[in-house]
Design a protein that fits this description.
The complex is a heterodimer of chains A (about 475) and B (about 425). Chain A folds into 2 domains: about 1-35, no CATH class; about 105-405, TIM Barrel (Alpha-Beta Barrel), CATH 3.20.20.140. Chain A is built from 11 helices and 16 strands. Chain A has helices spanning about 5-20, 150-155, 205-210, 220-250, 260-270, 285-295, 315-320, 345-350, 370-380, 390, 395-405, and strands spanning about 55-60, 65-75, 80-85, 95, 100-105, 105-110, 160-165, 175-180, 200-205, 275-280, 300-305, 325, 355, 420-425, 435-440, 440-445. In chain A, the strands form 2 sheets. In chain A, strands 1, 2, 3, 4, 5, 14, 15 and 16 form an 8-stranded mixed beta sheet that branches. In chain A, strands 6-7-8-9-10-11-12-13 form an 8-stranded mixed beta sheet, sandwiched between helices. In chain A, strand 11 (about 300-305), helix 7 and strand 12 (about 325) form a beta-alpha-beta unit. In chain A, helix 4 (about 220-250) crosses helix 5 (about 260-270), helix 4 runs parallel beside helix 6 (about 285-295) and helix 8 (about 345-350) packs across helix 9 (about 370-380). In chain B, the strands form 2 sheets. In chain B, strands 1, 2, 3, 4, 5, 14, 15 and 16 form an 8-stranded mixed beta sheet that branches. In chain B, strands 6-7-8-9-10-11-12-13 form an 8-stranded mixed beta sheet. Classes of the chains: A alpha/beta (about 475), B alpha/beta (about 425).
């Protein structure tokens, strides 16, 4: 499906196809093949206004393993322009003397339900799980996101600059996930991360079998796996139909386009390598099974989410290039979380696999730096010897890689988006707080200026409006 | 009790005493910075003497230590063992789709209000959560039902996290709630909830001192067992824990306490408590909270803020922190975050130690490093409120506890396992 067609022409061709057939006795010109718009809800994100800013005299973790003890970062035009020990301030730049504070890349949370499970937690806000069928690849989380969820601004105060928002884990295939910038606006399109590929949520284990066990199945783990495999087989079939359609068209035949199936379209997008799978999976054996399903149907799992037993199979995860998105220490709330250990994240990292700190929580997302700090300290106590500079990869670079946005963000490297956090102290401390948070070089949060603190529409006129949160 | 029973009891008591005496070791912790949480305050380079399972003395010098095993605390921080302020420890292994959970009930004839339900029968000291929690410095806890869907959440217990007989005090408190969730359970409205609560108290007052037999007439809305249990609250013998969030509900609770002066009221959560902080202090009502809850989860929590704990403390309210079960070990992180949002550091540590002990009136044995109290003591690698610091040595009742847990064993197994090789799974 690589035929390049401009969108306007495409829209006309569809209309043309509908109205022109049979209206002319002339043999019609060969119409171009039907192209499916893969981006019907395009990003309308506009960066906030920024001015050139130089932060000096700070300890810098660049997010890709580098640490500068006393350095500077220059941002302008929304990008990182320079990073180093000493940088000349361009004329007119705002200069912030960090005075021993710390600078890191913005935190990226690969697992959030902000907006789809917004606060207040009312039934009317419960928009994260389409629990009507075990495979709902056709639903898109972005169509449930309420940008006025106050959780976005709380996460911002915790240094989170981007996040992936996913459907819940009730279904084998829960639907499309979307990556957004943490800049709530009137409509979700204003938040969508330009150019970010879609994710697709899948879920292993207890949740789908519990939800569907009395509703026609799956009712077991083996039923789950049969469900994934049948869905992939259907997607293969669907993909072949479209491939044949384009092939026949190219061969000069006049084929009928297959009927669009939104469910299979998303699954086929994964098989085409355009959509990244993010799979809720706790147990090592469940993950091991999914690695084989992944090979059987030739797709890539970007990341196992929660992955509390990744430490048991870290070698296999490294070998298969699948990230693990993990909590520092959550465990025991259900059987598949029973073997959670505090050293999971550092053990995955030490095995050479991709480790990510994620939240799955509107409170956890506010303190992901502390989650990394706990995992880092626990790993080092058992001799894994990980530096802070390396550990920060869990918070920015690895999440960005697993979301397919590492070229744009996730590290402090020249030319990348200036998604930057200035911390009051070593962010591996409980007492450190994000002071300034920059998104595309614009000051999105300033702890020192209460007038600038975000207040969502929902919070306006309510008790606590504008308070320190 | 017959003679045989008396002899048996005496023998059992003696054997318990003999057992603990056999384990009790004289220990001196030397050279640490000790936060006693008593009038002795914080002392650098202190010596803590432990004898017969109790704290003997805290000195700001190093005396002759013949007869004591010395623990070198140089460079370390020593605090009282942490007390889980509100947990279900010992009552739940895995909560979800995993069999019996003693932390929840379904309605049964024995209790129409939930007041009579008693968790102390269900506390399992061999739950995997106990070593996981104590190896991170939690040495005792209040443990209670999570939800009954009834007016009361039963009678909770105070437990120790070591040994085979964990219950230090049974029927130590009764819990209820007047928040949105509680109203949902009782008539779906505060209009029904409060009247139901007041009626239950009237029945408890009535039943106190009466001799009720199976032949007695009793037409209360509570069962006899409920009313008897609740009479301990009415007499002020045990605290009534009231879950509440909204400012107006907290004001109702203050008025409730004025109506029932003898009742010892403690607030759970008190999300908007900071708006009524002065009044709470004046009414002498303490608060147990999760300081990290800063979102409007319900319409009764709109003014939630991370500064709640600090603002309450500043107004003179006694604050305790630690509402969790599997991860009660994170209470220290919660307290640290309260500190980074305005709570005084000492108050943060007090919120984990002496304050919950005061709330449950067990500060005669728990909560501080003070002569005569149980030797529940933690030696930390550094500031316990820092996420990167950890408990290194834990003493409970004067015994140094084993720091291994199911989790540390899982970790060690997979740290040592040669990945990719087929191996037998055997005991470490």
């Amino acid at each position: 499906m690589n035929t390049s067609v401009n969108k306007k022409a495409l829209a006309l061709s569809v209309l043309g196809g509908l109205f022109l057939v049979g209206c002319s006795d002339d043999k019609p010109e060969k119409t171009p093949p039907i192209q499916i718009d893969k981006n019907p809800f395009p990003s309308t994100y506009q960066p906030m206004t920024s001015s050139p800013t130089l932060i000096t005299n700070v300890t810098i973790l660049d997010g890709v393993g580098g640490m500068i003890q006393s350095g500077s970062v220059l941002m302008s035009d929304g990008k990182i322009q320079a990073i180093g020990e000493s940088i000349e301030a361009p004329e007119g730049a705002t200069i912030i003397d960090g005075n021993g504070q710390w600078v890191t890349p913005g935190i990226i949370d690969v697992h959030s339900h902000l907006g789809v499970y917004a606060t207040p937690d009312t039934a009317s806000h419960s928009d994260g799980n389409e629990m009507t069928n075990p495979v709902t690849a056709q639903v898109w989380a972005e169509h449930s996101i309420w940008p006025q969820d106050a959780g976005f601004s709380r996460a911002l105060a915790g240094g989170v600059t981007s996040m992936q928002i996913l459907p819940g884990s009730a279904n084998l295939v829960g639907g499309r996930a979307v990556t957004v910038k943490n800049v709530p606006n009137r409509v979700v399109q204003d938040m969508k991360f330009p150019g970010a590929p879609y994710g697709m949520k899948m879920a292993c284990g207890e949740n789908p079998k519990r939800v569907y066990g009395q509703k026609g199945g799956p009712g077991t783990r083996m039923g789950n796996v049969a469900g994934y495999r049948q869905a992939w087989a259907d997607a293969q079939d669907y993909k072949q139909k479209w491939d044949r359609y384009y092939k026949d068209h190219e061969a000069g035949k006049d084929p009928n386009a297959p009927k669009r199936d939104l469910k299979l379209e998303t699954l086929a997008g994964v098989l085409d390598g355009e959509i990244i799978v993010h799979m809720h999976c706790y147990r090592a054996d469940d993950m091991g099974t999914m690695l084989d399903v992944m090979k059987e149907f030739d797709y890539q799992i970007g990341s196992f989410h929660h992955a509390v037993e990744s430490y048991k199979i870290a070698d296999k995860l490294a070998e298969n290039n699948v990230c693990s998105s993990m909590w520092a220490d959550w465990w025991g709330f259900k059987m598949e979380a029973y073997d959670g250990i505090k050293e999971n994240i550092p053990m995955v990292h030490a095995a050479g696999a991709c480790a990510i700190v994620h939240s799955d929580s509107d409170q956890g997302i506010q303190r992901l730096n502390q989650e990394a700090a706990k995992a880092w300290a626990d790993g080092n106590r058992v001799g894994l010897n990980i530096s802070q500079a390396d550990a920060w990869q869990w918070l920015s670079a690895n999440p960005a890689k697993s979301l397919g946005i590492f070229e744009q963000t996730g590290s402090l490297e020249v030319g990348k988006n200036a998604d930057v956090v200035l911390w009051s102290a070593d962010p591996f401390s409980t007492y450190a707080k994000a002071v300034n948070v920059y998104i595309d070089g614009a000051l999105a949060y300033d702890r020192t200026d209460p007038q600038s603190w975000p207040v969502s529409d929902f919070e306006l006129g309510q008790p606590g409006e504008g308070d320190s949160k | 009790m017959n003679t045989f029973g008396r002899i048996l009891t005496k023998t059992l008591l003696m054997s318990v005493v003999a057992t603990s005496a056999a384990f009790a070791e004289n220990i001196a912790i030397v050279g640490a910075r000790v936060h006693t949480m008593s009038s002795q305050g914080s002392i650098d380079n202190a010596t803590v003497l432990i004898r017969d399972g109790k704290i003997q003395r805290v000195l700001n010098e190093t005396p002759a230590l013949a007869g004591y095993r010395v623990i070198d605390g140089k460079g370390k921080v020593v605090t009282p063992g942490l007390m889980g302020a509100y947990t279900s420890l010992g009552l739940v292994e895995v909560g979800f789709s995993a069999g019996t959970v003693d932390a929840r009930t379904i309605a049964s004839g024995i209790s129409t209000t939930g007041a009579a339900l008693d968790v102390s029968y269900g506390v399992n000291p061999h739950s995997s959560l106990i070593p996981i929690s104590r190896s991170e410095g939690v040495t005792s806890a209040a443990t209670a039902l999570q939800n009954t869907d009834q007016l009361f959440q039963g009678q909770g217990a105070i437990i120790t996290l070591h040994g085979n007989t964990p219950v230090l005090r049974s029927a130590a408190f009764i819990a209820t709630g007047v928040d949105n969730g509680s109203a949902d359970d009782i008539g779906e409205s505060r209009a029904a909830l409060w009247v139901t609560l007041e009626k239950a108290l009237v029945e408890a007052i009535y039943i106190d001192g009466k001799s009720i037999t199976p032949q007695s007439e009793w037409h209360g809305a509570s069962t006899v067992e409920d009313a008897i249990a609740l009479s301990a609250v009415v007499k002020g013998e045990v605290p009534l824990m009231i879950e509440v969030h909204r400012e107006s509900d907290i004001r109702q609770v203050i008025a409730f306490k004025q109506r029932h002066e003898g009742i010892n009221v403690v607030l759970l959560r008190a999300t908007e408590g900071w708006k009524v902080a002065k009044e709470l202090a004046a009414a002498n009502i303490p608060v147990i909270l999760n300081p990290e809850s800063n979102l409007p989860y319900e319409f009764d929590q709109l003014a939630a803020t991370l500064e709640n704990a600090g603002r309450l403390h500043d107004a003179g309210v006694l604050v305790a922190i630690g509402m969790n079960t599997h991860n009660i070990r994170l209470a220290k992180q919660h307290a640290g975050n309260a500190v980074s949002h305005g709570l005084d550091w000492e108050a943060g540590l007090a919120a984990l130690t002496i304050n919950p002990a005061r709330i449950y009136a067990v500060d005669d044995m728990l909560g501080s490093i003070e002569a005569g109290k149980r030797a529940d003591i933690v030696v930390w690698s550094g500031d316990p409120l820092e996420v990167t610091e950890t408990a290194e040595i834990v003493l409970i009742g004067g015994e140094q506890v084993d720091m291994t847990s199911r989790q540390s064993k899982l970790r060690d197994r997979y740290l040592q396992k040669a990945q990719g090789k087929t191996v037998h799974y055997v005991r470490p």
